[in-house]
Structures are given as C-alpha cells and as structure tokens.
C-alpha cells in the first residue's frame, strides 16, 4: 500500500525562481533563504519519495476567472510550465502519475469532495518553485538531470472569494491522506503545501507582514493544526494578508499527514520580495 | 457581497469585484503570451478595444496606475502580468500604491 512519508510547507515567491535561474543562491540577499533548505533536502534524500502531491494555488496561468474551481486535481501523464508574463524562465516538464490521480479523484468524490479533474493542467510558479527548491540538482532547462519523482498537482482557489475555509481545507487534506493510504501500490508519497506565509500585495496595506501570526502557524501546524481551522477566511485575510491566505495549502497538506508528526525542520525568514518566507518539513508518524 | 467588517487598506477580491473587473483581468490574463504583449505595445488602443474595457479601466491602463487599476476591478495577480510588460514586479506595484520608493516599501 502507498505510504505517506510526510509533508513540506514552503513559500513559492516567483522571484525565488529568478534567483535560481541567475545562480544567486549565495548572494547576501538570498543566502539566508536558501540556507533554510539543506536539512529538508537531507530528509528527502533518506526518505526517497516516489511521488510528490503538490497542493498549491494557480495565479492565472492554468485557470482564469471564466472557470475557477475551488478544488482541482491534475490527471495527466505530464505537466508543463509556461510563460506567466513577467520573465521567469520556463522550467522543464514533470511526469505525472495518472493512475494515482484518478484514484485520488475517486476517493475524494466518494468522500464528498467533488473535485474538478484536469487532463491538461499548466503548472505555475507556485508548483514549480517549490519543486526546484526541493530538487536543486535537477536541470530546470531540461538538458541534465530530470525530476526524480512523479507528481500530482492539486490546486485550491485562494484567488477569488469565496475561498474555501481553513476547516474545509483541513478536511480536504484529511481526505487526500485517506485516499493515498488506500492506494494499492507500494509507493512513498510526499505531500507539499505551497505559498505564504503572510503577505499582501495590494491596497494601502501592501507590504503587510505578521510575524507573530506566522510563528503561531508554524508552531500549531506541527502538533495542533486544528487550532488553525477556527479562522474564517476574512480573519485569515486580516491576520495573514490578502495573499497570505495561501496558508490554506499548508493546512490541507497538514491534514493529509494524520494526527501525529515529527518536525524535521522549521525555518522562517523575512522578507523575500514582499513576503514572509518559511519552510516546514514534517515526518508522518 | 457584504463582508462582516472591512479590513483597512485591503481589498477582498470577491464575486462583485471579479464581475466588475472581468474585462480588465481578461486583458491582463492574455499577457501570458508574448504575442499578445507585443500586440498591446504595438497598438494599445486597438488591443484594449478588443477586450471591451470600460472608460475607467481604459484610463487606468493608460495611466499605468495600480490604485486606479484595482479600483476598476483588477486583481493583483493579473495586474502583475500587465506590470511585467514594463519590467516591473510586485514590489514596484506595492511601492506605487504606497507612494514610496521600492526600497522604502520592503517589509522588515
């Protein structure tokens, strides 16, 4: 049966992709950020996941406002990145696991999460940047080393309100976890939740960051994730900033891991661009 | 929809705004493609005409003004694609709204 090794929450700020493309990892601005990742990669190297389920939000590459699914899952043999309009180099494609994708869709719908299925799904920086951070040896241009894992993208709408509540996203993650554990293949699965932490790009509160709330989230996500499910969407906007609601992807990731986890690594660095950056790795018990 | 309480300096991008800003956001969404970015730069009036912007949206595009674009229903993720045409990023977008330099707008 499939085994969930654990989960990782990580920031997905686009400029990280730019820094990787330009080889700026050791520049003074970037070094504190990239230094957060070696412990996470060390853990991944020992656990060797076969598949990564990435829970993220699309920012207008695959989905536009004409059709905006609250929850959507990729069910494709491969996933492509593409031009997002502001100059980030396009990263090599990813190999999917359609059998697992359809198994998850079956399990989620049986569990009353009537998810949208996508046989074509472009993946934007919110999917690509975390994969680049976890697998830095992969050649993003496509000539050298390929991704060592298959992927299943799952998107949550955090762009257009009404967005799903924190409580709903936690239950969604729990349903993803149940479905993975019921999968009849001996594979190791990593669940990643991307985005955040606190940031706000628009309005006179642009530049808003809430270190206290971010620290609270990083703490509660380990042993008391249900504490975060009490917040309404508006409360999350107020506490984390209007784009900080990407925390929902982390909450869903945590839901998939089961009750007990061990924290492998937890780091926080302010700012990257206008965002509070963080990475959290949790081993499932 | 009516929210329980407004959050100062914050826009909740909801159905009403998404409906009002649809044409503007659709224009910005099109800038994922280089050919569309080039077409906009080649003939801005003709390109905007195709998307049916209202007068406020057309003026906000002409003024390159983030606050006006947001007031006209723009979503910041789509506006970032418009800003990208001019080599600007979300920090530039933040600084323009606050009326400060990019350096001064960086949170700490």
Molecular structure report:
The complex is a heterodimer of chains A (285) and B (108). Chain A is an alpha/beta fold. Chain A has helices spanning 14-21, 31-34, 38-47, 98-110, 125-134, 166-181, 211-223, 233-240, 247-256; strands at 3-10, 51-56, 71-74, 78-79, 94-95, 116-118, 150-156, 188-194, 261-272, 275-284. In chain A, helix 1 (14-21) crosses helix 5 (125-134). The mean pLDDT of chain A is 97. Chain B has 108 residues and is an all-alpha fold. Helices cover 64% and strands 0% of the residues of chain B. Chain B has nine helices and no strands. Chain B is globular, with a radius of gyration of 14 Å. Chains A and B meet through helix 8 of A and helix 2, helix 7 and helix 8 of B.
Layout of helices and strands:
The complex is a heterodimer of chains A (285) and B (108).
Chain A: E1 3-10, H1 14-21, H2 31-34, H3 38-47, E2 51-56, E3 71-74, E4 78-79, E5 94-95, H4 98-110, E6 116-118, H5 125-134, E7 150-156, H6 166-181, E8 188-194, H7 211-223, H8 233-240, H9 247-256, E9 261-272, E10 275-284
Parallel strand pairs in A: 1-8, 2-7, 2-8, 3-6
Antiparallel strand pairs in A: 1-10, 3-7, 4-5, 9-10
Helix pairs in contact in A: 1-5, 4-6, 6-9
Chain B: H1 15-20, H2 22-29, H3 34-42, H4 44-51, H5 55-63, H6 66-71, H7 76-85, H8 90-98, H9 102-105
Structure in a nutshell:
Chain A is an alpha/beta fold and 285 residues long. Chain A is built from nine helices and ten strands. In chain A, strands 6-3-7-2-8-1-10-9 form an eight-stranded mixed sheet, with helices on both faces. Chain A has a two-stranded antiparallel ribbon with strand order 4-5.
